[in-house]
Amino acid sequence: MRRHGFQISLAVAALLFVVSLGVSLVRVSEQYAAEVRIRRNGIWITTQAQVELVRMSAMVQRFSLRVPGVTADDLSLQFEILLSRMHLLSSGEGPVEFGELQRLRRRASEIEAMVAPLEPLVDQLAAGDLAVAARLVAALDALEQLVMRANLQLHLERQADADHAQGGLRSLHWTLLACMAGLIASAGLLILLLLSRSRQARRSQRLAEAAALRQSEAERTLRVLIDSLPAMVSAYDRQGRYLFFNEAHARFHGLGAEAEVIGRTPFELGLSPDAGLRRALRGSAAEPFTEYAAQDPDGTPRTLLATAAPVDDGHGAAGRVVHAAFDITGRKAAENQVRHMAEHDSLTDLPNRVLFAARLAQALAAARQLGGRCGFALHLIDLDRFKAINDSLGHHGGDRLLLAASERMRACLRRGDTLARLGGDEFAVIQLGITDEAQVTRLAARLVAVLGRPFVIDGCTLHSGGSIGSVLGPQQGQSPDALQQRADIALYRAKAEGRGRAVMFSPEMEATLVERRALEADLRAALAAEALTLVYQPKFMVGEARWPNARPSGCEALLRWHHPGRGMVPPGLFVPVAEEAGLAAELSRFVLRQACGQIGAWLRQGLEMPVAVNLSALHFASDQAVALVEEALRHSGVPPRLLEVEVTEGVFIRNAAAARATLTALRARGVRVALDDFGTGYSSLSYLQHLPFDVVKVDRAFVRELHQDAGSGARIVDAIVRLVHGLGAEVVAEGVEEPAQLELLAQLGCDAVQGYLLGRPMPPDQLEALCALARPPSAAA
Questions:
Q1: In this protein, which residues make up the domain named PAS (predicted)?
Q2: How far from 243 is each of 246, 343, 580, 598, CA to CA, in Å?
Q3: What does the alpha-carbon distance between residue 153 and residue 101 come to, in Å, rounded to a whole number?
């Protein structure tokens, strides 16, 4: 639209010029009219050339500033117009009365030499090379100066001729004035057009300056943003020279001002770029994030997570390369700490079960690769008497013992061996580089020896010790589970043989364990099917027991298991299996329910028979014993006074305070409490003094030593009877098998007896028959 307006305005100026020229032709002679036409024609040629030069210069400036609406086609069209005007200016066509016009035509070659370089510059600018704009404008300005001087000179020549002809042309004065007015009007119009174009150019320049200011602000904002990032960002040319870097990059690498760094390579600055950046500089693909080891300016090792990517130069080729890196040293340290905590015991800082399993698998894989030429050993270690020590000293003392034991065991190992804490007081050692079994036994013996030495914990001297089960890998196990299982079998054997010893695994041990597990499975099935039974061994008051057909004063319930394939399984075999398998509570519940049920059945027959029941020591470390007894009494509804609970001294070794509370609670509910196997423990006198017992049973080992010669056995039993009677309890002797033993027990003042002499364990109906045949106490007297 603006271009059409300019053309219309130019047409109006031309029309005004033609009208003025026509009027002058009417008034002057043909010769004068021709001269005037030539003059005006020359001035028009130079003026048009100058106008087109101005338009071309403005067009170049607008195109280089990317002014909307100015295209490469507009630029080329304007240049073609300019070429036509310059050709007209330098051509030889038409009259040449004006000297300046003749000089211009004589300088045609010079003008063509000035015009010739313009065309390639215009083509380059149209192709997008904005860098040639300044050169093109400068060339146009030089050509414009030439045309402007010619135009000015032509005007001067015309003015001189007009003055010369003034005298003879007075009659044409008004005509010339009119023509001059037309020319002035057309020139004024052209000036207005030029001013308008100039204003447009200035407006375009202001817009370009505002755009440049916004771009500068955007660049500053982007720079502040990049400098505030925790990432280290830098850019390089294809030769690896710095183009840009942010503050984080400068701080980490100790770089100086940009002027000292830009244009130089990291190698020149004493830095070593990571492998990813080197590959990106050589190739065209982006590098994935990769961890690298680096050093900060202080020489401190750091870990970087870095990536590098080439930047397209706009023509499909790789230009500069951008590099970004994060300092993840803190995160890596935290990850390592978390991994260490996940793989190590919090108390001893030894490898825990997770890391131990991984290292055991590694040792097994390495031994397989060596083809059995060099193996390893697995030692499982349990601290002896740890629970008793932990209960007496508290958890703090137990932790101190674990730490001390860990340090002793660690000192016995070589570099490369692994000591792990699997939990509680259970440890494991992986001994590498084993070529013969003697190496294994020597290390196990050293470990037993160091653990057997006394420990001083919080001023207390403690004797703990350790039991060790060892296995050779891979000879005695092709998997970690198999090795651990067989080492555990050997450890179990070490404990069973008296603790404080080391045992190597043998296949026979595994057979024993398999047998034990089969027995456990059968016991579970028997309990579920209630295939176990109770038999009852009668107890007699000593005075009545000396007479035939004496009436029982009570009985002891004894558990029996008749296995369909094994035959009669003794309680000494299956009761420990039940305790280890976690069946102790279920077994005790069965015994208590059966015994209380039998008491109720006898009561319904008119027979009041107290029954004694043995309970496992495991129940007395908590309230489990009380709960089991209350459940059986509630289920049967029998009087508590007819139930007697027998316990061994093992209950006090586990937790004396809890045992005392349990016994007190049972007596408070009306249940009698008896201490079984008295004299075989370690602190019986102390227990008798502080714990509530209704009955104390003399162990059969002392009864067996009773003779008529009143030897040491009689003196021991006499002491026990006097002690127990002094505490207000009854004395029951078990294991009476000879009349002489019964006679001596009566003389020593024993209250009651039981044994094969008086009655073997029997089913309930036989006991009922025995009671039916017994004489009343009055008849016996």
A1: 218-258
A2: 11, 46, 75, 99
A3: 9
Q: State the number of CA atoms in the 13 A half-sphere of 186 facing the CB.
A: 24
* pLDDT over threshold 50, residue 267: yes
Closest by Cα among 752, 693, 753, 745 to 724: 693
| Helix (H), strand (E), coil (C) string for 402-434 | HHHHHHHHHHCCCCCCEEEEEECCEEEEEEEEE
Cα distance between residue 190 and residue 196, in whole Å: 10
C-alpha span between 697 and 717 (Å, rounded): 11
Q: What one-letter code names the amino acid at 49?
A: A
pLDDT digits (tens, 9 = 90+) for 493-545: 898 787 889 999 988 887 777 777 888 888 899 888 888 999 999 999 987 76
pLDDT reported for residue 318: 64
Containing 123, the helix (H) or strand (E) segment is: helix 118-126
644 burial via Cβ count (<10 Å: 0-12, 13-18, 19+): buried
Give the integer Cα–Cα distance in Å for 1 and 765.
129
CA distance 256 to 270: 13
**Cβ–Cβ under 8 Å, residues 147 and 50:** yes
Q: Is the pLDDT of residue 100 over 70?
A: no
Q: Which residues contact 381 (CB under 8 A, 6 or more apart)?
A: 409, 426, 427, 428, 429, 447, 451, 466, 467, 468, 491
Task: Specify whether the CB–CB gap between 629 and 597 falls below 8 A.
Answer: no
Q: Is it the case that residue 24 has pLDDT exceeding 80? A: no
Q: How confident is residue 263, by pLDDT bands cut at 50, 70 and 90?
A: confident
Strand ranges across the sheet with 418-423: 418-423, 426-434, 375-383, 466-473, 502-504
**Is beta strand 301-312 parallel, antiparallel or unpaired with respect to 318-327?**
antiparallel
- 3 state SS of 676: strand
Distances in Å between the Cα of 331 and the Cα atoms of 302, 308, 337, 609 are 11, 21, 10, 75
Range of weakest confidence among 325-334, 378-387, 442-451, 709-718? 709-718
**Confidence band of 778 (pLDDT split at 50, 70, 90):** very low
For residue 321, the 8-state DSSP code is E
Tell me what pLDDT residue 248 has. Answer: 82
CA-CA distance, 438 to 716, in Å (whole number)? 49
CA distance 457 to 640: 46
Question: pLDDT at residue 350 above 90?
Answer: yes
